[in-house]
Specification:
The protein has 317 residues and is of the alpha/beta class. The chain is built from 10 helices and 12 strands.
């Protein structure tokens, strides 16, 4: 159509709470964004219909020509076949052939990728890890997702399930994780874990200046704020999370020696209250030679990382 710009891609980030869509140009700039609630409780059929309508709306009402659609979705999934297998935060999405559904509707190239991998690709293309040949991304949110870039390529392993650092066990005798393992990192250092730790502390009768009862709504974000206000218990809980993240990152550094480790997601809003302990622990536990040139930084793209990375994925089919 006359007046439309070419070489633009639609990047989509499907989450348990929101679905985000963005038109991204060849240089990784977001030209248009749209967000809608996932409303997963309505069931996959209703969500997918609304999802397709949102894509249709963006394509029809945009002045840009869309050359392909990249979709980031929580795993596990089979990206080769374009099938969503069984994501915990989309419980009724079992073996959904999402790529084929979208491709059949819009007759465009479509790629389905793990959401954390999309965030990693986004940060490596246009964010904190821009230009790095080796990078590890950890997304610190409800759980802990991760992505691994080696030699400027996304490393997915033989069957596409590599770099699940959130499910590396840091305590073999720890609590059982939903994945079946024990003592997984995300049980100690995710936003969910931080909130749960505060509730456990209050149940023991330990006093906080800010939180008085387990009945009140306790979130990781509130704990960051409380720590900034000087609440000792909140600071201690963030220190614990930072310590466990530091242990995991030290192991990653010793094994992979990446150029940069990028931390993204809501937990990073804690800033130095989290990062200082992470860096202190990594410095104490990683090989000095391995850690010397490694940067540990916060992501730059925020919630746009997944959109940008998904568009990069389909752009580079």
């Amino acid at each position: 159509m006359k007046g439309r710009k070419s070489s633009c891609y639609l990047g989509i980030d499907i989450g348990g709470t929101n679905i985000r869509l963005g038109v991204v140009d060849d240089k990784g700039k977001i030209l248009l964004k749209k967000r809608l609630p996932t409303l997963k409780e309505q069931g996959k059929k209703v969500v997918i219909v609304r999802f397709l309508k949102a894509i249709d709306s963006v394509i029809k009402n945009s002045k840009y020509t869309i050359k392909g659609i990249g979709i980031g979705c929580p795993g596990p999934l089979d990206s080769k076949k374009g099938i969503v297998l069984s994501p915990p935060n989309l419980p009724d999405w079992k073996n959904v052939p999402l790529r084929e559904i979208v491709k059949r509707r819009f007759n465009l190239p479509v790629y389905l990728e793990n959401d954390a991998n999309c965030a990693g690709l986004g940060e490596n293309w246009q964010g904190a890890g821009k230009g790095a040949s080796s990078m590890v991304l950890l997304t610190l949110g409800t759980g802990i997702g991760s992505a691994l870039i080696l030699n400027k390529k996304l490393w997915k392993g033989k069957d596409g399930f590599a770099s699940e650092f959130g499910h590396v066990s840091i305590n073999p005798k720890g609590p059982k994780c939903k994945c079946g393992n024990r003592g997984c990192l995300e049980l100690y250092a995710s936003a969910t874990a931080v909130a749960r730790r505060m509730k456990q502390t209050l149940k023991k009768g330990i006093k906080s200046k800010v939180f008085k009862s387990t009945k009140e709504k306790i979130t990781a974000a509130k704990i960051y704020q409380a720590a900034k206000m000087g609440d000792v218990i909140s600071k201690r809980i963030l220190d614990e999370a930072g310590f466990y993240l530091g242990v995991a990152i030290a192991n990653i550094v010793n094994a992979l020696n990446p150029e940069i480790v990028v931390l993204s997601g809501g937990m990073t809003k804690a800033g130095r209250l989290l990062f200082d302990k992470i860096k202190e622990t990594v410095k104490a536990r990683a090989f000095k030679e391995a850690i010397r040139g490694v940067k540990i930084v916060s992501g730059k793209l925020g919630e746009d990382a997944g959109i940008i990375g998904a568009s990069w994925r389909v752009k580079n089919l």
